[in-house]
Amino acid sequence: MANKYWLPATFAGLLAIPAATLNAQNAQPTAAAVLAAANTAMGGDKLHTLQYSATGYVGVLGQAYAGNMDDTWPRFQLKSYARTIDYDSMAMKQEQVLEQGPWPATHGGGQRPIIGERRQTQLVSGKFAWDLNGQNAVPQPTQAELRVLDIMMTPHGFIKAAMAAGNASVTVQQENSRNMKKVSIVSFKAFGKYPINGWINEDHMINKVQTWLPNPVFGDMFVELRAQGGYKDYGGVKFPVEFHQSIGDPPSPGLDIQISDVKPNITGAALQVPANVQSATAQPPRVQTRQLAPGVWLLGGAYNSLAVEFKDFALVVEAPQDGERSLAVIAETHRLMPTKPIRYVVNTHHHFDHAGGLREFAAEDALIVTQESNFNYYEGVVFDLRPRLVQPDRLSLAPRQVHYTLVKDRRTISDGERTIELMHMDNLEHANDMLMVWMPKEKIVVEADMYNPAPAGQPQPPVNAQNMNWLFNLERWGIAPETIVSIHTGVHPMSEFLKYVGVDKLVERGRGLNAALNE
């Protein structure tokens, strides 16, 4: 019976160690302790404002040439880049000057090429955000939260926000497979919805900061800002030598900059919010309806869509921008045709500003009409059934299988009375999957990004490769439209375009051998 309670001497010896000592040996560091150590080591305890300058490049989100997961986004060179941050008021002024740089001038989207320089100034102060157009403040009320989040993604911004959050936690793990160093990952939620992780190494420096942002295509879009090349000391404030930002899954480069100068605690970093910015509020998308022909309506706004009536169903061309815009387009289409379901939504191409609302149409069980090269990308990324937690949409709240009508080179949709033809455009440098929509009876053609004239009274941009490529495709397909519907700029007579590119008329060139392969 005595043996029943026998213990090995080694284990018995452990019982003699005070419990407090064991707890101290095994205790995980608290988030507050990790943040305090990093704040001191990086000089954040005496930092209130900061200005840093850099050069490098910036990627253009969602504007890749090809609709697949292998093609990277186009890039522009940053001739200059400067951020001025006031951490106390959560204010930031970001100024950048973009040049085309060494990357292809016309491969992909994003208002390419840049001729000369393109200047951009973005500002935020607490709950107010705005851009500068010359000296004019342009309110951006929907961007304030995201721009403050951008401050939190910087090393000192993360520490200050995590210390103030009150809900920070920490886990400790091995930094990587090449050494046994540890990294403390501090996590908290910003604004109650954006998860943020800061990786803090054994030297109390931040390696990287991660978050997930709502995106109409990617859903919970992963964003990571890595500090590379170590840290430099600027009067007691430590700041990285280089930043590299990755976005999406799989990740694409969003930003890569080399820091050239850092100025801690400068004066004048707090911003005065313009009166028109203070009074601005976010407005729901408005659909301005205009009938172009019997059963054909332009659904206008910042981007344009087209609603087309068939005998037993409705068809919509383009689901641009985001889910909110598409919900407004869907509601207006139902108002115009209350007894007819939306059977098709035509997607001109995969760029985010033209595909951002497709998921709302998928939730309606509409067939997604797109060029066949997009199938794997759309099935695996755009319409995946993973939860969207930061900003749920209807498809994530009630998942359903998405169905497609794929176009190789040409496809016809008809009910015997009304016909539309979908035509794939060859030899484009803007996107490899571009479709145009031709309505032969109405002589209407719908295009995206091929012809975007300036408003009346303003100087027209020079003719570019996209304009001439579109001319080639119109002649290749042998069609003679009278009216153009531009997704970006609305309704234009075809004669205006022909005059712009300097030709008298369209010359039919035939559809080529590949026309027969699709039907």
What is the structure about, briefly put?
With 519 residues, the protein is an alpha+beta fold. The protein has 2 domains: 31-279, outer membrane lipoprotein receptor (LolB), chain A (Clam); 288-518, Ribonuclease Z/Hydroxyacylglutathione hydrolase-like (Metallo-beta-lactamase, Chain A, 4-Layer Sandwich), CATH 3.60.15.
Can you give a write-up of this model?
The chain is an alpha+beta fold and 519 residues long. The N and C termini lie far apart (89 Å). A hairpin with a 4-residue loop joins strand 21 and strand 22. Helices cover 22% and strands 35% of the residues. Helix 3 runs antiparallel to helix 5. It has a 13-stranded antiparallel sheet. A seven-stranded mixed sheet has the order 14-15-16-17-18-19-20. The N terminus and C terminus are likely disordered. The radius of gyration is 28 Å and the shape is elongated.
Break the fold down into its secondary structure elements and pairings.
Blueprint lengths: L8 H7 L3 H8 L4 H11 L7 E11 L15 E12 L4 E9 L18 E8 L2 E6 L2 E4 L4 H9 L2 H11 L3 E6 L7 E9 L3 E7 L5 E10 L3 E16 L2 E11 L4 E13 L10 H5 L8 E6 L2 E5 L4 E5 L4 E4 L5 H14 L5 E5 L5 H4 L2 H6 L3 E5 L3 H8 L11 H4 L6 E4 L2 E5 L4 E6 L10 E5 L4 E4 L17 H13 L5 E4 L3 E4 H8 L13 H4 L1
Parallel strand pairs: 17-18, 18-19, 19-20, 24-25
Antiparallel strand pairs: 1-2, 1-13, 2-3, 3-4, 4-5, 5-6, 7-8, 8-9, 9-10, 10-11, 11-12, 12-13, 14-15, 15-16, 16-17, 21-22, 22-23, 23-24, 25-26
